[in-house]
């Protein structure tokens, strides 16, 4: 995953990669204060970010690679996409990322089929940026309050009946015509035909 441009309003917590590569694991905890959580909430479009913790370690792997393993937990409030009512939720996820010393940019096919958690080792690891990115990926895309649903909106010019979904369905008119043909001519049509024959015989 390519590194995004840092946002000056967001918190940062960095560690030089040289402190990790070829040495012991580097343990960390990222737990932003209320001011930082407020900035993160605004950045992610949340109504509230009440708690947020990323805890884990960067562990040397082989001669130059690094593996990140961490646990993320957060308590958030989002707006219902239908009613805009506040929806509290708890987020938890396990994060594993491989940072490679000899990283080759994947082809389009490899990027589509291969793992998405491999990236080159940066000069610095910013655990705050990692935490915010992982939280954004873990958020519900379309939060919806219990029982909330989209009500159909009907509109029509004055004096006209609004069109319903049924009336706008493709082939609705053809289906009605086929049903009428299957039922055969109506009684009124048969009566009218009989009346015409009587008049002609006179």
General description of the model:
- The model has no long low-confidence stretch (mean pLDDT 79).
- This protein is of the alpha+beta class and 202 residues long.
- The strands form two sheets. A five-stranded mixed beta sheet has the order 2-3-4-5-6, covered by helices on one side.
- The termini are far apart.
- Helix content is 30%, strand content 29%.
- It has helices at 34-44, 108-113, 127-138, 165-168, 172-183, 187-201, and strands at residues 14-16, 26-30, 48-61, 65-79, 86-100, 118-120, 124-126.
- The relative contact order is 0.15.
- It has a domain at 14-138.
- It has six helices and seven strands.
- The longest helix has 15 residues, at 187-201.
Question: Judging from the principal axes of the Cα atoms, what is the shape?
Answer: elongated
Bin the helical content.
25-40%
Strand content: 25-35%
Count of DSSP helices? 6
Q: Gyration radius, to the nearest Å?
A: 32 Å
Mean pLDDT: 79
Quaternary form? single chain
Low-pLDDT runs of 5+ residues are none
The spatial strand order of the largest sheet comes to 2-3-4-5-6
Quote the distance from N terminus to C terminus: 92 Å
N-to-C order of helices and strands:
EEHEEEHEEHHHH
Give the strand tally.
Answer: 7
Tag the structure with descriptive keywords.
single chain, 202 residues, alpha+beta, two-stranded antiparallel ribbon, elongated
What would a concise description of this structure say?
This protein is of the alpha+beta class and 202 residues long.
Topology (SSEs and partners):
Elements: E1 14-16, E2 26-30, H1 34-44, E3 48-61, E4 65-79, E5 86-100, H2 108-113, E6 118-120, E7 124-126, H3 127-138, H4 165-168, H5 172-183, H6 187-201
Parallel strand pairs: 5-6
Antiparallel strand pairs: 1-7, 2-3, 3-4, 4-5
């Amino acid at each position: 995953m390519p590194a995004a441009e840092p946002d000056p309003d967001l918190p940062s917590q960095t560690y030089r990669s040289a402190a990790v590569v070829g040495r012991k694991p580097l343990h960390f905890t990222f737990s932003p204060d209320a001011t930082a959580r407020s900035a993160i909430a605004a950045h992610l479009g949340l109504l509230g970010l009440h708690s947020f913790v990323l805890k884990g370690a960067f562990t040397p792997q082989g001669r130059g690679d690094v593996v990140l393993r961490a646990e993320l937990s957060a308590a958030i409030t989002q707006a219902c996409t239908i009613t805009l009512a506040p929806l509290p939720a708890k987020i938890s996820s396990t994060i594993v990322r491989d940072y490679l010393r000899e990283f080759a940019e994947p082809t389009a096919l490899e990027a589509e089929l291969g793992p998405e958690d491999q990236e080159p080792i940066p000069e610095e690891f910013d655990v705050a940026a990692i935490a915010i990115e992982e939280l954004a990926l873990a958020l519900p895309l379309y939060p919806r309050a219990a029982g909330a649903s989209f009500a159909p909106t009907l509109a029509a010019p004055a004096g006209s009946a609004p069109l319903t979904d049924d009336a706008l369905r493709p082939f609705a008119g053809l289906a009605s015509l086929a049903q009428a043909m299957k039922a055969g001519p109506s009684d009124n049509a048969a009566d009218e035909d009989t009346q015409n024959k009587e008049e002609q015989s006179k």
